[in-house]
Design brief:
Strand order of the largest sheet: 1-4-3-2
Structural class: alpha+beta
Strand content: 5-15%
Number of strands: 14
Mean pLDDT: 95
Number of helices: 19
Oligomer: single chain
Low-confidence stretches: none
Radius of gyration: 26 Å
Helix content: 40-55%
Distance between the termini: 80 Å
């Protein structure tokens, strides 16, 4: 389709088009003929016919009511008829792959003029390509699927597989051997937890909360037990298709009667008389990706205590959608296991040793959530800084109010502290074995997750106050604030509730107290 040629117009010419039948406006040096749009304007016709709007520059009024992305939509682009002579647009929107110039919108290591001891040139090149991919491929699908509730598009999953993003989301390890990571930017043996942190934070930046879980969040927490505790035969049979995005897996631990109390699980696994199979009965609840998973990493009560078993979808396995406060694109499920027969070869780890399998998995799961939480805090800071600059109250920018600046100070401080603590822990992970991490970092990660989601809830509350009514409206200027305020509680609960994790951190510290110290 040929591009429409835009006219060069003077402001005097535009001013002549100020009637009901012939209505033009100027927004950021661009001229729009809204004569055919006026009847569809959500705010009514009278707003457009105001003498300060009709035929005039409506830039300030427009940006006090609408997000810039409205102008980027094709149905509104067609109303553009020209530009003002000698003037250029000055308002920049989201450029795919670009870094934000808003203060504190990027972590320090990406901010111009700042430095970091943690990131190499390779990390920076990697981040650039990852962001470009998420901005161009993932973000459009995230917006669409969060709205319609359908599972993430297979085309996106396939494109992620081409770059080995599914494999990289599992962290460093032997599963990366021989893979072409992000088009060859990083070698498998050089991939570290900071590379994974980059993926996770760019993922959080470019998606919405339900979609973020829907885009195989279940794999991130359900596959590690298979990689770390499954037999070589089991791994060879199921892992390739999962990392290729052809099959899906989830972690099925939580039940209606057992959440943080893992040892209180009631789903049972009993061996057959010949000892070759498990017979599993019970229910699981709030299971991410459960509605479309092919495999389930299931925590079961067994004769020896607690055992983790990989269950394949088949006879006796039933999944139902659970509607929660975020989008159904996450595939949150209620799962019923009714006399499900599973080969004992699908046991993950030792029989009765399931608590070690799950607890060792918790560290990585919670660290991943910390990465996303820290990045989301920063995205809210960016939204608020933009809003307080363009919003006018009492004839002045909103940030002229001291109470607003105080809220911003709290938001920025929380975002910076969460990121810095996260990077310190990530550095420790890069220099510790898996077993050392389990021993040394369980408390640290638990504290960080509890702190980060607590910060998130405080920031969500403050952001709503900054945006006012727009912050509780699912469309328009404050839609991302409303979304964050509605969904931050998922991070505060999933992977361990805030209070439970804070207590875990203290108990870990008390366990390490030397016996020969006194005041």
């Amino acid at each position: 389709m040929a591009t429409k040629e835009l006219k060069q117009l003077s402001r005097e010419e535009v001013a002549k088009h100020n009637t009901d039948d012939d209505l033009w406006i100027v927004i950021d040096a661009n001229v729009y003929d809204i004569s055919r749009f006026k009847q569809f304007h959500p705010g009514g016709l009278s707003v457009l016919l105001d003498p300060d709007i009709a035929g005039q520059d409506a830039t300030e009024v427009f940006y006090s009511l609408h997000r810039h992305e409205v102008l980027e939509q094709s149905q509104y682009q067609r109303f553009k008829v020209g530009t003002i002579i000698g003037e250029k647009s000055v308002i920049r929107w989201r450029v795919p792959g670009a870094l934000s110039k808003i203060p504190y919108a990027e972590p320090t290591w990406l901010a111009e003029g700042y430095h970091s001891p943690y990131y190499s040139d390779n990390h920076r090149a990697f981040q650039k390509e990852v962001r470009k991919f998420f901005d161009t491929v993932v973000y459009p699908d995230a917006v669409a699927r969060e709205a319609d509730g359908k599972r993430p598009s297979q085309s996106v999953i396939d494109k992620m597989a081409e770059l080995e993003i599914h494999a990289m989301r599992m962290g460093p390890g032997k599963h990366l051997k021989g893979r072409n990571l992000m088009g060859g930017i990083v070698k498998p043996e050089e991939f570290d937890y900071f590379h994974e942190l980059i993926i996770t934070q760019e993922f959080a930046r470019a998606t919405l909360r339900g979609y973020a879980d829907g885009l195989l969040g279940g794999k991130v927490i359900g596959l590690p037990p298979v990689l770390n505790f499954g037999s070589e035969e089991l791994q060879a049979r199921i892992v390739p298709d999962i990392l290729a995005g052809k099959k899906f897996i989830c972690l099925a631990i939580s039940e209606a009667f057992a959440g943080s109390d893992v040892m209180g699980l009631q789903t049972t696994a009993v061996k057959t008389e010949d000892g070759k199979h498990w017979i599993i009965n019970g229910n699981k609840k709030w299971i991410t990706n459960g509605t479309f998973a092919d495999y389930f990493t299931v925590g079961c009560k067994t004769e020896d205590g607690f055992t983790v078993i990989l269950v394949e979808r088949g006879p006796g396995v039933e999944t139902k959608q659970i509607k929660t406060s975020y989008s159904t694109t996450a595939g949150t499920a209620y799962i019923t296991f009714d006399n499900v027969k599973v080969p004992v070869e699908n046991t993950l780890g030792e029989e009765g040793g399931g608590i070690f399998v799950i607890l060792s998995n918790f560290n990585h799961e919670r660290w991943v959530m910390c990465c996303g939480t820290a990045r989301s805090l920063r995205s809210i800071v960016e939204e608020c800084l933009k809003w307080v600059t363009q919003r006018k109250v009492f004839g002045k920018p909103l940030h002229s109010q001291a109470v607003i600046r105080a809220k911003l100070a709290g938001m920025i401080s929380r975002a910076e502290s969460a990121q810095n603590w996260l990077e310190n822990i990530t550095y420790q992970m890069c220099n510790m074995s898996y077993r050392q991490q389990a021993n040394k970092l369980a408390g640290q990660i638990a504290f960080l997750k509890s702190y980060g989601t607590g910060c998130g809830q405080d920031t969500a509350r403050d952001a709503v106050q900054v945006f006012g009514g727009r912050g509780i409206t699912q469309s328009g200027m404050g839609k991302y604030i409303e979304h964050y305020h509605r969904t931050i509680t998922f991070d505060a609960l999933l992977g361990g509730a805030e209070d439970v994790l804070a207590d875990l951190g203290v108990r870990q510290a008390l366990r390490a107290m030397p016996g020969d110290v006194r005041l």
